[in-house]
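Narrative summary of target 7.
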Amino acid sequence: MKRAAVSKKANIYISFSIDGNAHVSEASDRVYRDRFEALCRTTGEIRGSESMGWSCLPSGIAVEDACPAIRSRWPQDVTVTIVLIGNDAWRRRSVDWDIAASLGQPYGHSSCGLIGIVLPSFQGKRYPLIPHDYCYLENQSKAGVSRRALPERFVRNLENGFARLYEWSDDLSVVGEWIDEALSRCDRITPDNTLPLFRRDR
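Modeled conformation, tokenized:
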């Protein structure tokens, strides 16, 4: 059944770990990034925007200027950021900066909704929710991913309820529901953007 049209037309920004000297695992992640962006462009309701790497920023940019610079390169009406969780997302400065830029404050922008989608190429294991170290996957019953395999700023916003984490789906009606829910949370929950920005990859 086709889902009802969203009340706010979502324009998504896709954050993805990208590096000119990518590891093999990161190159595998990129295949799914490309597939996901292609899927998002097949519908007029969800408009995908091209992922940008930190290398697109001016050379030598100060850390405190990074988030305003990133937002200035996005479409003006971006409303939801989707973080594609691959094998190196947790350690990439580009992903941390994307998330910080999407959360708005203290950078003078309104907050975007925030969700994470774990790519099929992700090599970390999904665990039962017994240890306290794992973050719950919304669409996988009693399963989670180690928070150490996730971007720290993203984990902060999972903990306060602003963000959600999902296992991969290429069903746009399902992804559309996740986006709708992220939009609704923007009106109810204040994001946590208090962590210092990454100064380099970890």
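Residues 1-8 have pLDDT under 50 and may be disordered.
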